[in-house]
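During the reporting period, our protein records have gained a structure token line. One record among many is quoted in full directly below:
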Amino acid sequence: MEKKNLKKIAAEKAVEEIKPGMIVGLGTGSTFQFALERIAEKIKSGELYNIVCIPSSDRTESEAKRLGIPLTSFEEQINTNSQLSAFNFPQIIDVTIDGADEVTVGHPESDSSDEGSIDVIKGGGGALLKEKILAQATKNFLVIVDESKISKHLGEKFFVPIEVIKFAASIEEKFIQSLGAKTTLRKNANGENYITDENNYIIDATFGAIKNVEELARKLEQRAGIVEHGLFVGMAKKVFCSMSNGEVKIIVGSKQY
């Protein structure tokens, strides 16, 4: 089965988790596009109603509007929800669905980590900052991939995207190299520096197999010039993984269905 069809069946299976009345986080990228189109179909058919969605990128926002998917914002939800206060920050999104560049379950060589944790690399499409904001604000963060994205260690198959402010790009690239990575400042097809929705640069860092994801994440988070990184540590609740035979394997922590 073609890879695009594998992505489609995983995306459509994940969309089944969305119920009427939910606040939904919308991911970004080619895999998530299948989920976005399925959400639009279910809204038009009347199967999904009274839902509002928060997009993770300008591109997704534009697509959602084109497909007739109702949108909202964090500000709107906070201002209209009397249960929220300055001392109470619940995860206000019910479900977020998004793709991933690489997925691993558990931490084979890290004693300090949760054995069943699902870790992913995201940001190949450049929307990692908003994607992580949505994931952190979500009760049920769902990831859709095909089986080629599953690894024993993150970094075996994909680089780590790291969003940096323009002012600090050079010094942060040197810092990232000091951690053992080979780095590339991301470019557009025309050779110009890639600019994120929040007007930052992205450094793509190739570490190879990352033995302790949590440790690397902490080191990156300590740097003022690094806005965000593409390591989503323990944030995903489920992975919907399409297999080459057309089946969808659902991974919940270390359990598979």
